[in-house]
Amino acid sequence: MSCLSTKKQSSVTIVGALFIALAPGEQTSATYSAEPLFDTVNTYQTTITTNGDPADIYFPIPSNSNTNTNQFPIALMLQGALVDKADYANFASTVASYGFVVIVPNHERTVTNPRTGEPVTGFIAEQQQVHDVLSYMKQENTNPDSPIAGIVNTNKLGLLGHSFGGFVGLAVIQDICVPRVCAGNFTQPPEVMAGIFYGTNFKDPPETGSFPPINNQMIPTALIAGSQDTIADLVEITATYNQIQDPPKALVIVKGANHYGITNEDNPVRDPVRPLLDQDVATETIARWSALFLRSHLLNDTAAFDYLYNSGDDQDENVIVIHPINPLSESALPSN
Fold this sequence. Notes:
Low-confidence stretches: 1-32, 326-336
Order of helices and strands: HEEEHEEEHEHEEHEHHE
Number of strands: 11
Mean pLDDT: 85
């Protein structure tokens, strides 16, 4: 069972309190000091040559003209089941503004619905994408005709994910091959350095099972939950968080967001509970905390680290943050 700081309540207490009275603050952007580092983000469409997936790539533009002096880590966004990559445009652009090259693929395949036994074809993430994207980004970084030539740090990969995509990311972090998300075998690449996932639980088997221990092998791992989420609800996400074995880890609860707080628009068909938090505020909040978690653990950003584990939830009225009582000290963070 995780120990929490004196400022943070136990996850059980928090879950109970949230169901009693969880509402966002006034519907305006929260006041915070963790502003994006880059004002301009560009994007382009491409095809991942290693697997044929269409993808959108978002990258920051430094204010000086010599972009070769800047190398940005990769952030791979693993999409939620049946959610088009374009629906993550606002989220991905915001993450990129914190100094990442964000790639959002459309990975189409057919799986068997575990509830009905019927085949389902659509956008469904799987673990092999990590290897395919890494290989492709190395090609792009050395391709003189690529918009991101020379600006990608291909030795550092952070994982992002939504819903089923987050389940895939948690399997990658554990270096296990999970049926339905892994074809045959999987070996975790050493470039994977952290992961943070929205609207995700990790049941084994998916959807119907229990919550096994998550052996994250000292890879920093975080979850973000929307308090209005009825697809991956707060109880399930908290149970998943409690099973993450190794710190640093965190659970960020976004008050008033539902399962689609991470996408450009709400989805009333797939999540029947409407959000209480403005969609743009929810998306920015999820993206900001995701980006700062990756900056903290991929780039040894001590300001981001302090925001995550000390001051951020005091500054952001729309979140509650849970983490172990003794997060790693700044001196213990990975070096560049």
